[in-house]
Design a protein that fits this description.
By secondary structure, this protein is α/β, with parallel strands linked by helices. It has 12 helices and 14 strands. Bound molecules: nicotinamide-adenine-dinucleotide and 2-amino-3-ketobutyric acid (AKB).
């Protein structure tokens, strides 16, 4: 049976990942960890919880030495919009925490999952059907840390034989924990606002096209890649994955199928618009499909239906 440590476990992805990992491997085999404990109730029924600052090498080493996981999902990070507001802090958190996790994993022989992002691409990357291997010159500090992270994970694999694996996530849409300061957050906020107020004002323009995916597909992908046969993986640390390439207008049209009275308006947010404009419109996920069987289930309308149903039940 696997023993798994999740860092950044109280975030948008971690809180849902911990629940699914506990279902598969048993609560007693899951350790969740974060720098804060305010949302600790979310993971408590599914794991042992430990507070640790992932930028502190000693704290990471103690955590891994104490619980002896065989797999680490390293999710502690700062997302694109928050990163752009405090670039040095983003570098410190995104890079130092990764080095600490890789170093302790090297010493204790853990496999490591590290998520990259569509943010690892930039304005000179081909925008349509972005290839798996292509130009990566991002213009956001978040993107710089994501490219550096992909390379560092490659290095630990080739130099030390560490079993590092990862995906480039698109924007993730979920209905449990709110997103933590990203450029794609509008695609989550729009559903909450639709249920609460019947309208939404988007900070990205009507035609801003980005890749997105529903959280259940993201969680399945994370577990699937860590269980896959590594001998077939030519692109270990940064597989493009996506389920849909959509604009705010597309989401609004999908919401209107279930709530015809829904209204979408727009306001400007220069920083997030510039970040979004530097990212691809659509990425090519064929390597993930061929090499480890990535296969998302939700399209836009299926996701919209589930988001609206779930959020309205929670708000009753
Ligand atoms: P999030 O912001 O919701 O959660 C990150 C968690 O990390 C938070 O709970 C935070 O408290 C914790 N954290 C921050 N600093 C820490 C530290 N020093 N030590 C320990 N914990 C710390 O982020 P998320 O959306 O869950 O993203 C997780 C990972 O997935 C990140 O690497 C992110 O870049 C990547 N990713 C996310 C998305 C998305 O749409 N959510 C898309 C692409 C990639
Ligand atoms: C963000 O917008 O920062 C994240 C991501 C796509 O990496 N959701």
């Amino acid at each position: 049976m696997k023993k798994v440590l999740v860092t950044g476990a109280l975030g948008q992805i971690g809180s849902e990942l911990v629940r699914e990992l506990a279902k598969r491997y048993g609560k007693e085999n899951i350790i969740s960890s974060d720098i804060r404990d305010d949302l600790y109730e979310k993971v408590r029924p599914y794991s042992t919880f430990a507070i640790a600052d992932a930028t502190n090498a000693l704290e990471v080493e103690r955590l891994i030495a104490k619980y002896r996981p065989d797999t680490v999902y390293h999710l502690a990070a700062i997302l694109s919009a928050s990163a752009e507001e405090r670039p040095l802090m983003a570098w410190e958190i995104n890079m130092n925490s990764l080095v600490n996790v890789l170093e302790s994993s090297r010493v204790h022989g853990c496999s490591v999952f590290v998520p990259s992002s569509i943010g690892a691409f930039g304005p000179t990357t081909p925008k349509e059907n972005t290839p798996q291997v292509t130009i990566q010159r991002p213009t956001s500090i978040y993107g710089v840390t994501k490219v550096a992270g992909e390379l560092l994970c490659d290095y630990y694999h080739y130099r030390f034989g560490i079993d590092t694996r990862g995906v480039r996530f698109p924007g993730l849409i979920s209905n449990d924990t709110l997103p933590g300061g990203g450029t794609t957050d509008y695609a989550v906020d729009i559903y909450y606002s639709a249920i609460k107020e019947g309208k939404y004002s988007s900070f990205l323009s009507a035609d801003t096209r980005l890749d997105m995916m529903y959280m259940p597909d993201a969680i399945n992908a994370m577990i699937k890649i860590m269980e896959a046969d590594p001998s077939k993986m030519k692109n270990r640390n940064a597989y493009n994955i996506t389920a849909m390439s959509i604009t705010p207008e597309d989401i609004a049209a999908s919401i209107k199928k279930f709530m015809p009275e829904f209204e979408l308006t727009y306001h400007e947010d220069h920083m997030r618009q510039a970040i979004a404009d530097s990212w691809p419109d659509s990425i090519d996920a064929s390597a993930a499909k061929e090499e480890w069987g990535f296969s998302p289930e939700y399209d836009l309308d299926a996701m919209t239906k589930d988001m609206l149903d779930t959020i309205s039940k929670k708000q009753k």
